[in-house]
């Protein structure tokens, strides 16, 4: 959605913390417009590479030095991860570190996996190792921020997300995650900073429409029908796009207190099977939390 500068400045000045009121009929109308996509099929190229790597490690084990073995185990672990085989991936990442203790990317993956299962102390330890080995690692602050976010340490999450945002303010996902942590601390300031990011840094990246949705500048129905399915990049599938769209719709519904609807969106994100995406990794946590909150409200 395009906005002129004057309109956006007026919009920023008028921002508040209250959300739009929706009725069950409105929710039903929105859900009727859902785009149901086919789950992403396991990539045959990944499976063939897995088979080749396993063969190499079995047949040439004696000839491989520690560095080569560590790299092969790390690569196989990343392929297992991409196919959703997280236990096998975790085994290989740990084995890779036995051969190459300074492999920062292996620690980064382990930190993500520990976050997914709620072992936050181990996650923080893994991300600290990443930053010690590679202070400029491109994703360590994001992933440590996510760990802090799901550990309900929103102040720490906000710090890491802010640092991550500042390295590339034109990336809408960075603005979104900074907002998600900040809104738990200072809702009004979080909304204003999100609008400022939209005004100053937006580009053609589709996820700026998620920002518009959070700012109330576009409706949930328009987001689904006019933006989420349009303008796919050459290397992007509709399934991948909808994994993201459903996750961030779920987060919006949480903020609006619509827990049942949020759970539906997170369940849809899970059904995409886009295992590599952050949004898929944490959709299960979000779905369970949303359902717990929905059930708690029903017994009040």
UniProtKB/TrEMBL annotation:
PROSITE patterns named among the record's database cross-references: PROKAR_LIPOPROTEIN, TPR, TPR_REGION
Protein known as: Lipoprotein NlpI
One Gene Ontology term, aspect cellular component: plasma membrane
PANTHER family xrefs: TETRATRICOPEPTIDE REPEAT PROTEIN 6, UDP-N-ACETYLGLUCOSAMINE--PEPTIDE N-ACETYLGLUCOSAMINYLTRANSFERASE SPINDLY-RELATED
Record's function text: May be involved in cell division.
Major localization listed first in the record, in broad terms: membrane
Compartment list: Cell membrane
Spans traversing the lipid bilayer: none
Secretion signal, residue range per the UniProt entry: 1-25
Binding partners and assembly: Homodimer.
InterPro entries: Lipoprotein_NlpI, TPR-like_helical_dom_sf, TPR_rpt, Ycf3
TPR repeat placement: 104-137, 138-171
Gene3D superfamilies from the UniProt entry: Tetratricopeptide repeat domain
Keywords recorded for this protein, A-Z: Cell membrane, Lipoprotein, Membrane, Palmitate, Repeat, Signal, TPR repeat
SUPFAM superfamilies: TPR-like
């Amino acid at each position: 959605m395009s906005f002129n500068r004057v309109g956006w400045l007026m919009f920023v000045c008028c921002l508040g913390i209250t959300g739009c009121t929706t009725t069950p009929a409105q929710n039903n109308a929105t859900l009727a417009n859902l785009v149901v996509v086919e789950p992403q099929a396991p990539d045959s190229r990944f499976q063939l590479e897995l088979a080749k790597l396993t063969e190499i490690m079995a047949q040439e084990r004696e000839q491989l030095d520690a560095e080569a073995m560590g790299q092969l185990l790390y690569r196989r672990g990343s392929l297992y991860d991409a196919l959703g085989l997280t236990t096998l991936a975790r085994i290989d990442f740990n084995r890779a570190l036995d051969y190459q203790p300074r492999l920062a990317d292996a620690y980064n993956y382990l930190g993500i996996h520990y976050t997914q299962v709620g072992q936050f102390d181990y996650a923080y330890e893994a991300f600290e190792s990443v930053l010690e080995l590679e202070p400029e690692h491109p994703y360590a602050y994001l992933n440590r921020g996510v760990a802090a976010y799901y550990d309900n340490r929103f102040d720490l999450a906000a710090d890491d997300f802010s640092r991550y945002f500042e390295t590339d303010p034109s990336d809408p996902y960075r603005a979104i995650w900074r907002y998600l942590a900040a809104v738990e601390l200072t809702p009004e300031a979080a909304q204003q900073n999100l609008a400022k990011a939209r005004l100053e840094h937006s580009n053609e990246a589709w996820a700026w429409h998620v920002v518009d949705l959070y700012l109330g500048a576009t409706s949930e129905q328009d987001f689904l029908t006019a933006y989420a399915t349009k303008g796919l990049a050459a290397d992007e599938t509709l399934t991948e796009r909808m994994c993201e769209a459903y996750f961030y719709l779920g987060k919006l519904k949480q903020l609006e207190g619509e827990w049942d609807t949020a759970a539906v969106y997170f369940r849809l994100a899970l059904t995409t099977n886009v295992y590599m995406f952050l949004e898929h990794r944490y959709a299960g946590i979000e779905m369970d939390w949303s359902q717990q909150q929905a059930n708690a409200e029903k017994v009040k």
